[in-house]
Amino acid sequence: xxxxxxxxxxxxxxxxxxxxxxxxxxxxxxxxxxxxxxxxxxxxxxxxxxxxxxxxxxxxxxxxxxxxxxxxxxxxxxxxxxxxxxxxxxxxxxxxxxxxxxxxxxxxxxxxxxxxxxxxxxxxxxxxxxxxxxxxxxxxxxxxxxxxxxxxxxxxxxxxxxxxxxxxxxxxxxxxxxxxxxxxxxxxxxxxxxxxxxxxxxxxxxxxxxxxxxxxxxxxxxxxxxxxxxxxxxxxxxxxxxxxxxxxxxxxxxxx
Length: 256
Ligand code: 13P
Prior knowledge:
This protein is of the alpha/beta class. The protein has a single domain, classed as Aldolase class I (TIM Barrel, Alpha-Beta Barrel), CATH 3.20.20.70. It has helices at residues 16-29, 48-55, 81-86, 97-101, 107-119, 132-136, 140-151, 181-198, 201-206, 217-224, 241-255; strands at residues 4-9, 37-42, 60-64, 91-94, 123-128, 163-167, 209-212, 231-234. It has an 8-stranded parallel beta barrel, surrounded by 7 helices. Helix 1 links the parallel strand 1 (4-9) and strand 2. The radius of gyration is 17 Å and the shape is globular. Bound molecules: 1,3-dihydroxyacetonephosphate. The site of 1,3-dihydroxyacetonephosphate (13P) has 14 residues, from strand 8.
């Protein structure tokens, strides 16, 4: 059976002190190994080292929200994957919709980042998801296929155990309009089928596919109960321990 992963994407929020406080709260409540649930928190770049320190030896992974694919050098304002490795960072979110749509990242750029992150042995949380206009035009599956093909170009089956896929419908992010459990399940099943035909059934079966987009304590359980939903990528609710902890607990319950 696949393990669950509950990930918090803190986006561009907080101070160093508040990020460390939040990290300590997550570390305190983290379920043990036998729960089959892993927890990942992704603070902003300037808070990574402090959060890593605050987490200490607790069973909480720390990830970045982005990185640049080039080797360290003359790339003003960018952060190299090697720098994340140096800090002991475990994972990196790539292809988040805010980077696709606000920062205009293309599938080609995301793919360079994915391949460079795999080379550095980081876990990659690859985000995919359609716009509302694309869903209304019945383009959801075509968009997901294009983002998967683009993002995973040149990535072979042996590297897929370093990848987690996050389905985040853009219309559900930060809007309070969560996908229904059926909508999430349909998209996740489509993604798993895609993985099976592009790679093989074992890769598809082993892949953790997270749902993201307005996950809250009151909708987490029914989303996580779907057979192809293996966890959550949580934005707003991950900034408050009193909201994030019940979502982690919903995964612990779903894993029973
Ligand atoms: P919200 O949970 O705030 O909708 O954000 C989802 C998200 O973008 C996580 O990466």
